[in-house]
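Field: COMPLEX_INPUT
Field: COMPONENT_COUNT = two
Field: RESIDUE_TOTAL = 730
Field: MODE = joint
Values follow.
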Amino acid sequence: MRSKLFAKKTMALTMAALMAMGALAGCGSKSEEPAPAEAPAETGGDQAEAPAESTGEGVTIKFQYWADNTDYSQLMQDIIAKFNAENGKGITVVGEEAPWDGGSYSENLFNAKMGGGDVDVSTWKLTSTPLFVNNDLLADLTPFIDAWDKKDDIDQNMYDVMKQAGGSDSIYVMPWNVQVLYVYYRPSIFEQAQIEVPTTYEEFLTAIEKCTLDTDGDGKTDVYGFGMRGSNGGQEPWGSFVHGRGGSFEDMTTAESIQGMQDFIDIYNKGFVPPSAAGDGFQQIIDNFKSGLTAMTIHHTGSSAQMVETFGDDVSAFPFPAGKGQWTSMGDTETVIFESCENKEAAFEWVAYLAAGEGQKMWCEGTGNVPVSKTVQAGDFFQNDRFMKASIDGQSYAGILPILDTTTEWISTIWPETMSQALTGKLSAEEAMNTLQEELYR
Amino acid sequence: MVKKRSIWPYLLVAPAVLVILCVVFVPVINAILMSFQSYDLRRPKDIGFTGLANYIEALGDAKFQSAFFKTIIWVVAGVGFQFLFGFMLALLLNKSFKGRGVVRAVSMIPWVTPGVLIGLMWSWIYDGNRGVLNDILMKLHLINDKIPFLAQDGTAFPGVIVTIIWQGIPFFALMLLAALQGVSTDMYEAADIDGAVGWQKLFYITIPSIKNTIFVTALLRVIWVANSVDVIFNMTEGRFGTLTMSVYVYQKGNALDLGYASAMAIIMALCLLVVAIPYLRSNFREEG
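Field: COMPLEX_OUTPUT
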């Protein structure tokens, strides 16, 4: 009897332990121990030999990418099919799409690679570079680029940015395309609000206020001046406000930076943006603009085709105007080859095709992204488009967030969380900026 | 008669034991080891033993403390109402009425729907601009302006709690219905003869008869709800006062700070053990 009771007690304890352990199981499913860094001499030796590898006869390259919508998914598959059919070197690219998921793409990719995932090439964001380089996951592309006949078709500045991201003189990231953020606006609403396209930061703030309209006279706002992105990805348009007041990412605690944050909070509190703005992400700002709920919003040429499809001529764009400072986000997209790729030369053929070949032209024309290839940039498609013009006009002051090992978490968690607290009054502008500064430069 | 010992039973359970060891125990041991290290994959060169530093940091972390209390509310309100409505649904489905089979099948829909889809669906319902809830409330003249339910502190947490309640009701209903069907009708007939009224039969016959099922089901749900990430993450990502411990652990794990995430996960597991052990012990003691 006693032993039976003991057995039951033991069983009860075991059951409880097993069930509670479920909480830990997910956390423990970590990736494998990071490999120790190779000696520079060895790494250099491997890389020097890389271009001499086989030309990839009968080689398969596994390529992972994200696409913003189903049209772009199809476009990428078309590019892959064209490359496979025409490369003449027996290289077969197998494209697999993964969701961008508000930036979790990079984290998921990292987990996959640390766990031994077999992706050879992937589309990329510069902010992830330190993490992958620190863990020796990326192939050094320098010898491939140096030996590439189209190297000069891409501006040297792009290579310098890529080097900066990797923190050394080596290039780990292949330029592909950029997206310069600009302001979408509805000319008909500007006309209704009796304003012109703003040319200064102050005029832009005034335009936001004036475009907030009660169109049917029922005392309620029908059109909001600005489609604010308070959720993931919102740090890019927000950065323009901070710089508009003369602030910077290097020191977000200056009076100028705090004032930029205060402007952002003010347009929310004054009702110039939809009440849902604190939680709005990419899809919401696009939907709100397309439904006519907002008069302006900030995005890049990646959404211009659907804007034109919705509004025809009643949509246009202007570069984010200058205040004490001027900045807009250069949303970069690149490609990388992983160190684990066994056929780097074949993989380079593919990334080169995307950077300066037919793949560059097809992708940039299809998505409206700004090409990095000078030859492609010179084409009529890019010279005669009003959204592309706004992008090109913004290129001179476009920039990126500081690339640190904290940047990914800062973008995906810290900024949205801090911003939601600032917008809902739990943090002042100053407190919010102190938090953002502290977390980015931790 | 002496029973002959055979290796067969052990061989038969060996695969299951092996799988459990691989998918539960190895990661758990890994997590425990990592919790004592600075294990941030963004800074692989700094990985090393740090003793209780992660635990001390977690216990002093205001965000973690807030998440702890939010988790208590999340579990108590979520599981409490799931039980209440699940029990009501089970009592209803235990009665004979026309179309009962269809109602039983339909009532299971929330339980079989993936958490991610539930999060998306309720996000649309609560949407501050085009959500059906705002539309209904405005048409009923209950509100004048649309409410961004999931983008403000006062409504976001109740919003996600309602969602988890909706998701969990069928599980309680299913388990309790099965238990109800095992309660002998003789007891109700005897109670009728003694003049017992409805509530007396409920509290003196029905509930005591299915007590063990209620215990086990509630315990399972407490652990599942406490560990649940998908609904909150898909609706608010833990913002606007909805950050529970499991979501915070997920965020830190996703940010690759695995040492800190592991320490928080272990604290959470210990908290759940505190709930689970006395619960199961008392349950088994009564049975014994």
